[in-house]
Amino acid sequence: MTRRPLIIGNASGFYGDRAAALREMLTGGPLDVLTGDYLAELTMLILGRDRLKNPGLGYAKTFPRQLEECLGLAHERGVRIVTNAGGLNPAGLADAVRALAAKLGIPASVAHVEGDDLMPYEDGALTANAYLGGAGITACLRAGADIVVTGRVTDAALVSGPAAWWFDWAPDDWDRLAGAVVAGHVLECGTQATGGNYSFFTRHDVRAPGFPLAEVCEDGSSVVTKHPGTGGVVSVGTVTAQLLYETQGVRYLGPDVTARLDTVRLLSVGADRVGISGVRGEAPPGTLKVGVTRIGGWRNEVVFVLTGLDIEAKEELVRAQLADALRDVAEVDWTLARTDHEDAATQETSSALLRLVVRDPSPDPVGRSLTAAAIELALASYPGFHVTAAPGPAQPYGVFTSAEVPAASVPHTAVLPNGTRLPVPPALAVPPALAAPQPSPAPPAPPAPTAPPGPTGPTRRGPLGALVGARSGDKGGDANVGVWVESDAAWAWLHATLTVDAFQALLPETAGLPVARHVLPHLRALNFTVPGLLGDGVASGHRFDPQAKALGEWLRARHTDIPVALLPAPEATP
After folding, report:
1. What Rg, from alpha-carbon coordinates, does the chain have?
2. pLDDT at site 539
3. Is residue 83 a contact partner of residue 35, using CB atoms and an 8 Å limit?
4. Distance between CA 521 and CA 427 in Å, rounded?
5. DSSP per-residue codes, 137-152
6. Nearest 5°: phi and psi at 563?
7. Which of 82, 303, 324, 388 is most buried, most CB within 10 Å of its CB?
8. Is the pLDDT of residue 344 over 50?
9. What is the per-residue pLDDT for 299?
10. Continuous H helices in 363-452
11. Where on the phi/psi map is residue 509: left (φ > 0), alpha (ψ -120 to 50), or beta?
12. Per residue, what are the HEC states of 516-563?
């Protein structure tokens, strides 16, 4: 007998997301399961520092506050809650939830998943956590848990784990699991699937986008949507953008299954409803990713404001005046952002920003002595000297790296509501043919365009974003940029035109890096991975945009020659 679809929503895309979302999702319409994703690479560093101060912490402290006003709602509506807010201390958060339920007089069966914490890992590591799959969540739900708290699981596991419970899938139901993983990847970042951070945002009212949900079917297909009456939009474009977010290659590796992103098909099936189908799955690798954070050193920053004339000369003067103070600093980065405009109508728009970022293994060279040297220039440097904020003491910065360990070496454990500790075996062994890393297949040819632009047709120079959408993000020190178009004709042009060389020419900061291009024809999309662009990752604060969130928008703003036939027709002038 076929079971009805699982209705599963998301109420958090990161630690610090909209606090009211839990209530909004519980009151906005029917749900079977509500998830919350709180963990990111930077979050693990934050939680690691919390744990150093108090071993009883290490979890997302906002979650119990959100749950206090919503636990009764979830109980009344029969909605299960699954969250990775447990962070580094899922047992501690589970205990806090039990105490909260007892205080409120609400019966709640609480379970948690642990085993991801591999500390002590190596000298200098602050945190080390394996990325677990959804099987522990499945086991907890099968045991009757109303609330499941996890540590570091893959973001998509928050959906694939409940789906496997709901439909009683076998561990080797690769295609079904892969479909649920893709749905989970769409939901994991909350409102990024409903119009947030969307290239074509001006087409829609996205002032207050609602959070997404998915109706997952027994065959692994799904429909992404949102509660009626909530803001934002769910379209093939918003779902495509999220599918491309922080992915690398056509094989999306996971602890439970490898999802083939080059098999995903999207179809609009109604207002704010996008169907996901066709997802193929393969056996997972025999290893688990381990995210490791450590304190990398100390950093500081000063931003000088340069106003009016002679911007370059003012920059040169300040750099020369601070040369002696910076002589013994391990890493020094100067960046001049030309935000100034000629003959500007306001002082702010007449100003450029000169940013100095310093890093060192010791706090002393980048501490008060350095910032004092900068401020001492206030009456002795360029005309109009001032800074954006008072310089402060050196701050520690983090470094994120990843490694792999055998899946069988990680003690994945489901701690059931009655306290039983149930070991969760790793996914089925990888067949020998897949034991070694497999190269991605040769990119398939793009589908035949319905309106070929023609290589000799007229072109117009303009921003790539007039035709192309993009979304970008980070994985440690690597960045990815996914780009897509909306017609077959535009896809034929994009596939032929935006090569790795063209990409690097448009984004000169990627020159010299081993950029790779991955082709996703069913999405009319290309995904570029840029290893090493972000240095030591977001926690090190090396770049102006340390998580590469706007890298795709920079690409869209770059100018190139675009066939006129592909560009939107100009609006008629009255």
Report:
1. 25
2. 62
3. yes
4. 29
5. HHHHHHTT-SEEEESS
6. -55, 130
7. 82
8. yes
9. 94
10. 368-375, 432-435
11. alpha
12. EEEEEHHHCEEEEEECCCCCCCHHHCCCCCCCCCCHHHHHHHCEEEEE
For residue 54, give both structure tokens.
């108090």
Numbers of helices and strands, H then E, in the chain:
16, 26
Expressed in percent and rounded to 5, the helix, strand and coil fractions of the chain are 30, 25, 40
Could you report the per-residue pLDDT of 311-339, keeping only the tens digit for each? 999 999 999 999 999 999 999 999 999 99
b/e sequence 293-319, b meaning 16+ C-beta within 10 Å: bbbbbbbbbbbbbbbbeebeebbebbb
Question: 352 forms bridges with which residues in the sheet?
Answer: 306
- Does residue 40 contact residue 220 with C-beta atoms inside 8 Å? no
Mean of the per-residue pLDDT values of the chain: 93
List pLDDT tens digits, range 365-397: 999 989 999 999 999 999 999 999 888 899 999
**β-bridge mates for residue 290, sequence order:** 130, 403
What is the model's pLDDT at position 535? 83
d(CA 13, CA 247): 16
List the structure tokens of 531. Answer: 């290893």
69-127: pLDDT as tens digits: 999 999 999 999 999 999 999 999 999 999 999 999 999 999 999 999 999 999 999 99
Q: What is the largest CA-CA distance in the chain?
A: 81
Strands (E), 361-423: 386-387, 395-406, 413-415, 421-423
